[in-house]
Design a protein that fits this description.
three-stranded antiparallel sheet; alpha+beta; 601 residues; 52% helix; single chain; 16 strands
Length: 601
């Protein structure tokens, strides 16, 4: 059956009530005119209806344009209504390539996409986490042996590049429909592969249900006190200038501290420090030289403060949206091979917190409503608890079961003294060892972290594994399994290949071992907090709460909450986080609240 215009096609759909009867996944593609947070204009979602009496139909819709830009000159309101009814119908399954991006744009247009059942980009990442590119055109070539129309053929390159809004309707219709069609084909391909590799259940339990949560978080954004950051910038700028002056005084000459070549000349030619790594001035080199002269340590301080100022304090206000006055970060599910979430524009995970100057940035994260406060919930030592569960080490399990301070317990075992006699330095050492071994750190790395000799580091590690023999057995078992199967997996079954576990190259082999040791722990940690986020968001919606989950950073969830909802929210969050993924040791959630993220954490 052929349709000469869109009006007859829509009449055909309405007569048969196909908008509710479609059972196959439906996908679409948004062509945008500009990429800017919350200002993205949809030039036209191309819907691909599948299985309408055996036919596929692309429909071009312009959410912002005039009726002239709509295929076959159908009224904009009519098409928007058709699209909105379809997207908000939960009974109609939706699939897409990076569907979160499209759903977020539609949400900003007043259309709440429901019924998301698949995402080809997420599936591709889960099936092949080591892949460097999971773009649609690459997936099309790899899985379908089909070359898609490059975007350059539509809008050109460089100075000759035009806006998508200026592309001929016929070309943009084919381009958008092709994207939708390929996505739909890939959906069936990946669906089969996920089931074959026993990853379908994991995919549908964690990654897909997390999408609506992330869409909501990105849409809500976080409020930042820009004036406070401006004041911080001025204050930090003075400290940076003072450090620069001190460095030049110590050097006896003015030079560009940011120039690695000029700094190398000062360190190795003027002062005469020993050369490491061919006159390198990298951080690890300066760490080794800081006890030989003042300048390396001063440069390290200068760099940290300068980076803090330029990368975060000065950059964050630039990301504040003009209309919402909030920052709308993007949360990524396809960056970390372990499954951990990351964020971009900005990367909240990388905001430094070891120094007070870094922690102070959190003071600017507040609510724009005086009736609301910031609430934080953080898993306590969760990776060590997961290690205790996986390794079944008696000493570690016992420490967590009794509610002891695990770092003090480790110090007591390693230094062979009473837990009551542990000094702060001993506990610090034990903490570095505990977490270092989770990431497969060897004697050299440990010696650098602790500032001790290689021989001392080896002795500490040997003593540690004697006291925690269960951890040593677990690590040996993981390495053995990785060599046999060429992959490691989390508690719930997410896999990561470790091809270099038997490499003849020592560096590659050791890196693969570290990856094999850490991935099951870090990946399980990621699964736990994702499950908690899904459950918490459901509770927020079911109870019609005004509290909003606004950030996820490592093991921590941050909320913007009305004061009168705080107690209930706290009980909900703690319960859902504790029961998200039960372990054989107690799971502890530390909570706090206050005017700012700084006060809450």
């Amino acid at each position: 059956m052929n349709f000469t215009d869109l009006r007859s096609f829509i009449s055909f759909l309405e007569e048969r009530n196909q908008l509710v009867r479609i059972k196959e996944p439906v996908t679409w593609d948004l062509e945008i005119t500009e990429i800017a947070d919350r200002q993205i204009r949809a030039e036209g979602p191309a819907l691909l209806f599948e299985n309408v009496d055996g036919h596929e139909f692309p429909v071009l819709i312009n959410l912002y344009g005039s009726a002239q830009r709509v295929a076959w000159s159908l009224g904009v309101n009519k098409v928007e209504e058709l699209f909105k009814n379809k997207e908000e119908n939960e009974k109609i399954p939706k699939t897409g390539q990076n569907i979160k991006f499209d759903a977020l744009i539609l949400k900003r247009h007043g259309i709440n996409v429901r019924g998301i059942q698949f995402d080809t980009m997420l599936a591709a990442h889960l099936l092949k986490p080591e892949s460097r590119s999971i773009k649609l055109d690459n997936l099309s070539m790899e899985k379908l042996n089909y070359r898609m129309v490059p975007i350059d053929e539509l809008i050109g390159r460089g100075r000759q590049q035009i806006s998508m809004a200026d592309v001929e309707l016929e070309k943009i219709t084919f381009y958008a429909a092709e994207d939708a069609d390929i996505t739909l084909q890939l959906t069936h391909v990946f669906l089969k592969e996920l089931k074959e590799k026993k990853l379908y259940s994991f995919f549908m339990k964690i990654e897909i249900p997390l999408l609506p949560v992330l869409i909501e978080m990105e849409y809500n954004g976080v409020f930042i006190d820009a004036k406070m950051l401006d004041n911080m910038s001025i204050e930090l700028g003075k400290k940076v200038d003072e450090l620069k002056e001190t460095i030049e005084e110590e050097a006896g000459v003015e030079f560009n501290v940011n120039s690695t070549q000029q700094l190398a000349k000062i360190l190795f030619d003027v002062i005469g420090l020993r050369e490491i790594k061919k006159r390198s001035t990298a951080e690890d080199v300066l760490e080794q030289l800081k006890n030989d002269h003042q300048i390396p340590d001063l440069v390290l301080q200068y760099r940290k403060l300068n980076k803090l100022k330029n990368t975060y304090i000065d950059a964050l206000p630039e990301l504040i949206h003009n209309e919402t006055k909030r920052i709308h970060s993007t949360f990524n599910q396809t960056v970390a091979s372990t499954g951990r979430l990351s964020s971009s524009n900005p990367n909240f995970q990388n905001i430094p917190i070891r120094r007070e100057e870094g922690r102070k940035i959190r003071k600017a994260f507040i609510s724009d409503d005086p009736k609301k406060i910031i609430f934080s919930a953080d898993y306590s030592q969760i990776e060590l608890r997961i290690m205790a569960h996986l390794s079944k080490d008696k000493a570690l399990v016992d420490a967590f079961t009794k509610g002891e301070d695990v770092h003090s317990r480790t110090a007591s075992l390693v230094f062979n003294i009473s837990i009551n006699d542990i000094s702060p330095d001993m506990r610090r050492t034990a903490k570095i060892v505990n977490f270092g071994l989770l990431y497969g750190a060897g004697p050299f790395r440990m010696s650098q972290e602790l500032g001790i000799s290689l021989k001392e580091a080896k002795l500490i590690i040997e003593t540690y594994f004697e006291r925690y023999s269960g951890i040593k057995n677990y690590i040996d078992k993981i390495i053995k399994q990785a060599k046999k199967h060429q992959f490691v997996e989390t508690m719930l079954g997410r896999r990561r290949p470790v091809w270099d576990i038997d490499s003849k190259n020592h560096l590659h082999r050791e890196a693969a071992k570290r990856m094999a040791i850490n991935m099951p722990i870090q990946g399980t940690n990621a699964e736990m907090i994702k499950l908690a986020m899904i459950s918490i968001q459901k509770e927020l919606e079911n109870n019609k709460m005004k509290s909003k989950m606004i950030l996820q950073v490592h093991d921590e969830l941050i909320f913007e909450v009305p004061k009168n909802e705080l107690d209930f929210l706290k009980s909900v969050v703690i319960e859902e986080m504790e029961k998200a993924l039960p372990l054989s040791v107690p799971i502890v959630v530390d909570c706090g609240h206050g005017k700012s993220w700084y006060e809450a954490h």
